Amino acid sequence: MKKGRVIVGLSGGVDSSVAANLLKEEGYEVIGLFMKNWHDESVTLSNECPWLEDSNDAMLVAEKLGIPFQTVDLSKEYKERIVDYMFDEYAKGRTPNPDILCNREIKFDVFLEIALSLGANFVATGHYCQKEELVSSSDEKFYRLLAGADTNKDQSYFLCQLTQKQLSKVLFPIGHLQKEQVRKIALKQDLVTAEKKDSQGLCFIGKVRLPDFLQQQLKPKAGTIIEIPNNLSVYSKSEIHQDDLVNRSKKLRYQPTDGVEVGKHNGAHFYTIGQRKGLGVGGNVEPLFIIDTNVDDNTIYVGQGKAHPGLFRYALKVAQEDIHWVRDDLKLKSGETLSVHARIRYRQALQQATLFQTKDALYVSFENPQSAITSGQFVAWYQKQELIGSGVIT
User: Fold this and answer.
1) Domain locations in the chain?
2) Which positions are annotated as active-site residues?
3) N or C: which end of the chain has fewer CB within 10 A?
4) 181-240 per-position pLDDT tens digit
5) Three-state secondary structure along the chain?
6) What pTM value is reported for the model?
């Protein structure tokens, strides 16, 4: 007897292929659905068409597994919810994370609604993360979002904006496996994706590089690159008071007179804090890293070496409207604090931190200074292996 209907987001990669295979073996009625999220030919930079190749691989996997397959075009929703937002953020000098937004707005919202309308009990993806269902003392179900068993591939960070409602309807069939095990299963099942390389680049345009994509949508604008000397001091870690948090969460802001001009660039909105490549400035003892950008006067500030103090901060701020709790029962009230581990980018090792909730914002104060805290990116906080909340860095 079938355990229920599951619609798997078949991406054309090995992970979602094995996810579909495992669900079928477990007795679910499995349907494969490929999401086409982009077909704007004006941004195609080569003759390659990754979505077509991926769609074909997804179809071949479905045929091999003997499951129904169809393609759904979500490019309109993707442009409205993701791409337009991305360009708006970059134009403001912020750096959004399209993969997290894609999961929140497309895979586990639009796609989920389509799946439910087709009579699905669940949707499933090939993400390396795990879900645990618990029952509260008042007999209410709630769900824990846990890191994947493969610490090198853990993708819980990309799902940091999911809600309890979304988690109640999602399955992560490969979250308990190592990547090597996933490939072995695919080889054993003779799936066409078994040895296919993991996808790189944006989740909607595949092999197109982000800077190249942006330059087709945002106009170049010549500006100066200013090098800041290394004699600035990072905010010290002192006894924590709210006023200290406010100051230590702010970026150091520079003026052109703080340093010397070392080059030109084609638009501050094309660059992000912590970036090393693409500056076109050489001849230094150590590589130059971007420590700040100012889109208002179109200036980029750089410093020599990855230890430049301008790269580091002890704290960051999340505006009240950008705070998200996966676990609503753990939500902080104004004046409360919580000891957590946090990360500000994918694959970063978890860092010891403390959350401070004020009336207007949430502050994340780290035990050790963090490099390249970037506005527009997401900070996610954990308790042990459980991701409990996240927010957009101001």
Assistant:
1) 5-215, 219-394
2) 102, 203
3) N
4) 999 999 999 999 999 988 755 555 555 566 667 777 788 999 999 999 998 655 555 555
5) CCCCEEEEECCCCHHHHHHHHHHHHHCCEEEEEEEECCCCHHHCCCCCCHHHHHHHHHHHHHHHHCCCEEEEECHHHHHHHHHHHHHHHHHCCCCCCHHHHHHHHHHHHHHHHHHHHCCCCEEECCCCEEEEEEECCCCCEEEEEEECCCCCCCCHHHHCCCCHHHHCCEECCCCCCCHHHHHHHHHHCCCCCCCCCCCCCCCCCCCCCHHHHHHCCCCCCCEEEEECCCCCCCCCCCCCCHHHHHHHCCCCCCCHHHCEEEEEECCHHHCCCCCCCCCCCCCCCCCEEEEEEECCCCEEEEEECCCCHHHEEEEEEEEEEEEEECCHHHCCCCCCEEEEEEECCCCCCCEEEEEEECCCEEEEEEEEEEECCCCCCEEEEEECCEEEEEEEEC
6) 0.92
